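Note to self: the last two entries modelled the partners one at a time, which told us nothing about the interface. This time every component goes in together.
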Amino acid sequence: MNLFRSEEHIGRWLGGREPGATIPVGKLSELAHAWWDDRLSPAWRPHTPNGNQAILGRLGLTADFWRLPHP
Amino acid sequence: MNEDDLALRNLTYAGFVELGRAPTAAEVAALTGRGQAEILSGWERLHAGHALVLDPATGDIRMANPFSGVPTAYRVQAAGRWWYANCAWDAFGICAALHSDGRIETSCPDCGEPLHVAVAGQRPDDDSLLFHCLVPAARWWDDIVFT
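The predicted structure of the combined assembly is written out below.
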């Protein structure tokens, strides 16, 4: 899970490997704040798979790539 | 996760923030009055529940996501000190968890050039950068350190 200068840099770094998913850094920041905001709260409880999937969905990350395992 | 393990998890995270690094089992044991073996077994249950990640060789904390217990390529300045993040996502996550603006320092994995990102009001100051996630979400926990 890395930051890159551009698509060209990602392509070179992949070196023929199958690409994963690429999103703009602004969306990453939104995602991180939604995902980690409660991490130090004394009221923290483990996120459920459905809850985490909903965070991804609210940010438009709905492709199969972003589908979490559901036990 | 039962209430005892949840309390241990919260105390461990609080210790991480207080110390600016991963606390040792001895340090957490001293805070709780419990034995070190009890802390280690609690950490193992938290590891199994993906609430912490332990180093398999030492039993030390490798990740208390978004914080890293070991040096990484992602350094974050937030809330008055420097931290290591496990990845780019977690670098923003440290600002989120601390409810703080911050500064992320890393380098492009392709060209090695430094990348500096200031985070203010939850927004990065450079919108041109891209985040690439190689591993699909369904497999993130197959090998979380690689992910």
